[in-house]
Amino acid sequence: MPKIVDHDEKRKQIAEAAWNIIRKEGVEKASIRRVAAEAGMSSGALRHYFSTQDEMLLFIMNYYLEEGKKRSQNKEWSENPVQAVEEVLLELVPIDEEKKIETSVWWILALRSLTSDTIKDKKDEMTDGTYELANSMIEILALKGVLSDSMNAELEKSRLTALIEGLSIHALLRPDVYSPEKVKEVIRYHLKTLCNKIN
After folding, report:
1. d(C-alpha 176, C-alpha 171), whole Å
2. 17-to-10, 35, 90, 108, 133 alpha-carbon distances in Å
3. 3-state secondary structure at position 105
4. How many angstroms separate the CA atoms of 118 and 38, rounded?
5. 77-87 in b/e burial notation, b at 16+ Cβ within 10 A?
6. Which of 144, 8, 26, 29 minimizes the C-alpha distance to 81?
7. Model confidence over 34-89: pLDDT tens digits?
8. Secondary structure of residue 31 in the 3-state scheme
9. What sign has the CA pseudo-torsion 11, 14, 17, 18?
10. CA–CA dist 98, 107 (Å, integer)
11. How far apart are CA 199 and CA 197, in angstroms?
């Protein structure tokens, strides 16, 4: 009988193997051959999934994005709109090990996209997605009647996007300063400035 391949398990092995190399030695070392060896596969088997390094990096990004989506789908959100918005925003910043991996992969790909057309489209999709999520959060606060009347909603969407992306960078580069507690404090304070009240 032919051997049954568990493709989900293979995806997990490849993504984790590639990330281990990138984290320890840099993205330039994550060649098809190195990742295949780290994942316990042949280069030929790995090329069955993708043929270039950029395709592999895109695959890693998509893998960790899907992991993040699964985590969010299984989460129970607060009924309080301000708390729910805070919980959603905290899913976007690296305050635990899983999110640190996801955020690190994202920023590596963002830098790589400057010279790679293959990755550029995904980078644009991701940055647009962050803005769209910020847009949704501001709209939720407005619909629930807690957004301050003095706020410029359009500008606040851009400001919230910049805040989340900035916190992500600082939490990765200076976790001693931007601890999970500090990140939560900053997000909570920002939401307080946006809203008439926080229940």
Report:
1. 8
2. 10, 6, 27, 16, 30
3. helix
4. 24
5. eeeebbebbbb
6. 144
7. 888 888 888 888 888 777 878 888 888 787 778 777 777 778 888 899 999 999 99
8. coil
9. negative
10. 15
11. 6
21: pLDDT strictly greater than 90: no
CA dihedral 129, 127, 110, 39 (to 10 degrees): 0
Rounded CA separation 92/21 (Å): 24
**Terminal Cα distance for the chain, rounded:** 62
Confidence of residue 183 (pLDDT cuts 50, 70, 90): very high
- CA neighbor of 56 nearest in space, from 36, 74, 76, 41: 36
Residue 18 in contact with residue 60, Cβ under 8 Å? yes
What is the C-alpha separation between 125 and 176, in angstroms, rounded?
31
**Residue pair 108/22 in contact by the 8 Å Cβ criterion:** yes
Q: Could you give the CA distance from residue 103 to residue 130 in angstroms, rounded to a whole number?
A: 13
Output Rg (C-alpha) for the chain, integer angstroms: 19
Please, where are the H alpha helices in 91-152?
97-112, 117-143
Please name the residues in contact with 126: beta carbons below 8 A apart, sequence gap of 6 or more: 61, 106, 110
